[in-house]
User: What shape does this take?
Amino acid sequence: MTGFDLGDPADDADEPTDEQADSSPDQVPDPVAEPPTSEPESEPEPESVSKATDSDPTETGPAFPYSEVKQSPLYAREETWTKFEDQLDFTVTPELRRMGIRDDELREVHDVVLELALDNIDEIPERLAEKRREL
Assistant: This one.
């Protein structure tokens, strides 16, 4: 017990709230109100809105949900990381916008970067050896 006193209950604490009063079982329905229908009325679909199966994949949101992400550190020199971020900002993002993709997620970009590395995996040993020779 913290010793905190909430005070005395309000005088009308035992009276039903407006919501409780509206949901009483013996309430008479309003004769002016429309009777409930068994099926909700559906509005016709505008022609400009296409079905999910017909939509362009670039307009459907991220390629995969966040729940599929495996976060893992990627270690790079500050200079390399800055160049990478700059290229994303100045090259990749504008091209995505031209393609109509406005909701790109960083996880998608990182996934594609790793896929590109996998596509060129045979270049990694030589590039690493080259970097060591530069020292």
